[in-house]
Design goal:
The complex is a heterotrimer. Chain A has a single domain, classed as MetI-like fold (Orthogonal Bundle), CATH 1.10.3720. The radius of gyration of chain A is 22 Å and the shape is globular. Chain A has a two-stranded antiparallel sheet with strand order 1-2. Chain A has helices spanning 2-29, 49-80, 85-99, 102-124, 133-157, 161-169, 174-203, 206-211, 229-236, 242-281, and strands at residues 39-40, 45-46. By secondary structure, chain A is mainly α. The longest helix of chain A has 40 residues, at 242-281. In chain A, a hairpin with a 4-residue loop joins strand 1 and strand 2 (45-46). Chain B is α/β, with parallel strands linked by helices. Chain B is built from eleven helices and ten strands. Chain C is an all-alpha fold. Helix content of chain C is 75%, strand content 0%. Chain C has helices spanning 2-25, 27-42, 47-51, 65-95, 100-114, 117-132, 137-162, 165-173, 178-189, 191-206, 233-241, 246-276. Classes of the chains: A mainly alpha, B alpha/beta, C mainly alpha. Chains in contact: A-B, A-C, B-C. At the A-C interface, helix 1, helix 2, helix 3, helix 4 and helix 5 of A face helix 1, helix 2, helix 4, helix 5 and helix 6 of C.
Chain lengths: 282, 252, 281
């Protein structure tokens, strides 16, 4: 009982702390904070637009890159190979992928992805920074695949087998069953999985901090260096005081609220699906 | 037997090492209802699943012997071609919850990517729903999802879905076992009506149902076809002692 | 008609091929990461690397002893804070399946699980570092324990829910008081699940870096005082990776190797525990 209250209190205290500490920045900049693109420590002028754009660009780019892969894994494990050696192998590999610490993804990205992106950039004729939004999105895509894939697999296995049988009995091929029966049925769950992956991508810090190039200017292309909301906090908070620190906490508050919303919606959808599925069985 | 829609010739089926059907011989003439009855686990469901090769969806299954649909070898056809000619209705009503009633009826065409004009589809939907005695009940909300229908209505929707493909034979896998008595009798009446146009193979563990609707009855026991013949004859003078014991309720 | 069927079958096989192709391409990064870590990491690791302190740039040799010890200290600290509260909250949720408070707590667990680790770092900074005016191992431990809580609570709840009600009834019927029934009957039967949860959550936080940036901070020297800054493996990897010196980069790979082995070991042990200690009801 006490412990339960403690957990609820903990979350409340987190929100409250963020809010109180962000008050100076909120008072000074208000909601204009999110449309102003200057982040100038010397002039004490702070706007979060570059980081908002940076976060949105990296996260959505990462999602787009990851979707074909994560859906393929879901279908592979949820429909084509539910058991057997191939399935066990792929499933454990995905689990290991999920367990590798973020900082190691960052390290690997610095020494493998960055030179590769630099080559691409030289070929395209853009400034070869190597680091930037595109590189971060690549590493984020790899990092979120396990999340959306495991949720996707679960909802695909929840599709009642009598529906699949009915479709087969009408002469459908496996592809047609997947396209017309399984995917439409599992759609909301797959979307919820992608939403939760988005939540991870938005909040992911270390790998992005190491690969995004730490630039506080509004990004001009997907290859330019930038900062996300999380990475600017990681880069600047340790040395920040006064209004800088408060502004960074303001960003953290927004980050907290956005991920909270994404997680609540995603979990709500998944919970609803599994309740419906358990009703089907009985 | 001449002119038979379905011929089963010394047919056996295996799940792994376990033999589920042993050398079954059976022949179903046109425009009749043939019932397969027997205690649960005797292999009757396996037999009809072998007719449209649905057993191949399960791992580790094997068959021996032959089956013919209108004199064509079932096991040399592409499964997806075969299944279009063989309709199937399942134990539990299973309309597709993501589709409207209309789309459910033409699901076979939609799934198989067969195009027809809007008008043709309208005709198919109306005819199939009329044949399944459901048209009057649903004609006003064809474009709503079928999930609000009662169990019996849903099952008739599934029958319409199978009929829409003009199957050469209709497999019915205990189609009333999940329904209440009223819906059951409605559907049984429907079978008698449908017989004019389509041949049906009905799996049931309800002896009364076999007696009420079928022209021919097969009694299957532990994977073996014990007896097969006209229903009247089997129910009045069973040839085999086991059939008699089953019919009088000694086991099963 | 024939062509139509063949086209559909071809489409079917192409799709299956694509699914398999994409699924296995996603394994490529994993293989590459493991390959790089092993190739670059294993050559660095020797006895000195494990037992010596970092040396300033220009001096050969040295190791990451302080980081390894720091990571172990942080794990112990965060376990001390999170395990009692986590298990207690899990028990509460399993015992009170319905009810307003339970639903609120469940929602909080979901939110806590999804909260970015950097935000948790800020919280620990605001609560511990700022009042004490120093970075410290304690603040790092608090930050990590907040991250462990949701996993422990969830697994505890799930495990205890599976314990049949009659087991509890049997004990209550013998006149054993409620709290003793929980402690002596319910908890031991769910031990394997709870232990699995703890190990999984430890695996999760072992590699966490973001919340340590401004809590535990980092320390070139060995430190045993929990009120002083402390080093950790992930922080050391970050610090070395972002440095311009190639010798430090190889050290980062070496530390990564140790870290990956450590997290994988926790994951494997967790899985082993959940299989081996499974109690049948």
């Amino acid at each position: 009982m006490i412990s339960a209250v403690f957990i609820a209190g903990l979350l409340f205290a987190i929100a409250l702390t963020l809010f109180i500490q962000a008050i100076p920045a909120i008072k000074t900049f208000g909601f204009g904070f999110f449309v102003s693109k200057t982040w100038n420590t010397a002039a004490e002028q702070f706007g979060a637009l570059p980081f908002l754009v940076g976060t949105l660009l990296t996260s959505f780019l990462a999602l787009i890159i990851s979707i074909p892969f994560s859906i393929s894994i879901s279908i592979f494990l949820g429909e084509y190979f539910k058991e057997g050696a191939a399935s066990t192998f792929l499933r454990s590999a995905v689990e290991v992928l999920a367990g590798i610490p973020s900082v190691i993804y960052g390290l690997w990205g610095l020494f493998l992805l960055m030179p590769m992106v630099r080559i691409i950039e030289t070929k395209l004729g853009v400034p070869p920074h190597g680091v930037g939004i595109f590189t971060s999105a690549l590493i984020l895509a790899i990092m979120v695949i396990p999340f959306s894939a495991s949720i996707g697999r679960e909802v695909i296995t929840l599709v009642p087998s009598d529906l699949k049988e009915a479709a087969y009995s009408l002469g459908a091929t496996r592809f047609e069953v997947l396209k017309n029966i399984i995917i439409p049925y599992a759609r909301s769950g797959i979307i919820a999985g992608i939403l939760l992956a988005l939540g991870r991508a938005i909040g992911e810090t270390m790998a992005v901090t190491m690969l995004i190039g730490n630039s506080n200017f509004l990004p001009t292309s997907i290859f330019s260096p930038a900062n996300t909301m999380a990475s600017v906090i990681a880069n600047e908070f340790a040395e920040a005081t006064g209004l800088v620190s408060s502004s960074l906490i303001y960003i953290a508050l927004v980050l907290f609220l956005v991920t909270m919303l994404v997680n609540i919606i995603g979990n709500y959808v998944i919970q609803k699906i599994s309740i419906e599925a358990s009703k089907e069985v009985t | 037997m001449e002119n038979s829609v379905l011929t089963v010739d010394t047919f056996s089926a295996f799940f792994g090492d376990h033999q589920v059907l042993k050398d079954v011989n059976l022949s179903v003439p046109k425009n009749v209802v043939a019932a397969l009855m027997g205690p649960s686990g005797c292999g009757k469901t396996t037999l009809i699943r072998c007719v449209n090769r649905m057993h191949e969806l399960l791992p580790d299954t094997k068959v021996a012997g032959k089956m013919f649909l209108n004199e064509k070898d079932i096991y040399t056809m592409e499964p997806i071609v075969l299944r279009r000619k063989v309709g199937m209705v399942f134990q539990k009503p299973n309309p597709f919850p993501t589709m409207s009633i209309y789309d459910n009826v033409i699901a076979g065409y939609k799934l198989n990517g067969i195009r027809h004009s809007r008008e043709d589809f309208n005709n198919i939907v109306e005819q199939s729903l009329r044949s399944a005695a459901l048209w009057d009940e649903v004609k006003d909300f064809l474009h709503r999802k079928g999930t609000f229908l009662s169990g019996g209505q849903q099952q008739r929707l599934c029958i319409a879905r199978a009929l829409a493909m003009n199957p050469e034979i209709l497999l019915l896998d205990e189609p009333t076992s999940a329904l209440d008595p009223k819906s059951t009798s409605q559907i049984e009446e429907l079978f008698v009506e449908l017989k004019k146009n389509v041949t049906m193979l009905l799996v049931t563990h309800n002896i009364g149902q076999a007696a009420r609707v079928s022209d021919f009855t097969a009694f299957i026991y532990i994977g073996e076809l014990i007896e097969y013949g006209p229903t009247e004859k089997m129910f009045t003078v069973p040839k085999d002692k086991r059939t008699e014991e089953y019919l009088t309720g000694k086991f099963g | 008609m024939k062509d139509h069927v063949r086209a559909r079958l071809i489409k079917n096989y192409i799709f299956k091929g694509l699914v398999m192709l994409f699924a296995f391409i996603s394994l490529l990064p994993l293989l590459l990461i493991l390959y790089y870590i092993t190739k670059n990491g294993i050559s660095v690791i020797n006895w000195d690397f494990l037992t010596q302190l970092p040396r300033p740039i220009g001096e050969a040799g040295g190791g990451v002893f302080n980081a390894i010890m720091g990571t172990i200290m942080l794990i112990v600290l965060s376990c001390v804070f999170s395990i009692p509260f986590g298990i207690a909250a899990g028990i509460y949720l399993a015992e009170n399946r319905e009810g307003k408070l339970s639903n609120i707590v469940r929602l909080c667990v979901v939110v806590l699980q999804g909260t970015p680790s950097i935000v948790i770092g800020i919280i620990a900074y605001a609560w511990i570092v700022a009042p004490l005016r120093t970075f410290s191992a304690l603040s790092g431990g608090i930050a990590l324990s907040i991250m462990m809580l949701p996993v422990i609570i969830k697994t505890t709840e799930e495990t205890l829910k599976l314990i049949p009600y009659h087991l509890k009834e049997a004990s209550l019927a013998l006149g054993v008081p409620y709290y003793k029934t929980i402690l002596k009957v319910v908890l031991p039967s769910g031990l394997n699940g709870i232990l699995t949860g703890i190990l999984l959550s430890v695996a999760r936080i072992t590699g966490e870096t973001a919340p340590l940036l401004f809590t535990a901070f980092g320390n070139q020297f060995m430190n045993w005082n929990i009120f002083k800054p402390i080093d950790s493996l992930p922080y050391r990897i970050f610090y070395y990776a972002m440095s311009p010196y190639p010798e430090w980069h190889t050290f980062a790979w070496g530390a990564s190797f140790i870290l990956v082995v450590l997290t994988l070991a926790f994951n494997l042990i967790a899985r082993g525990v959940s299989i081996k200690w499974k109690i049948q009801f």
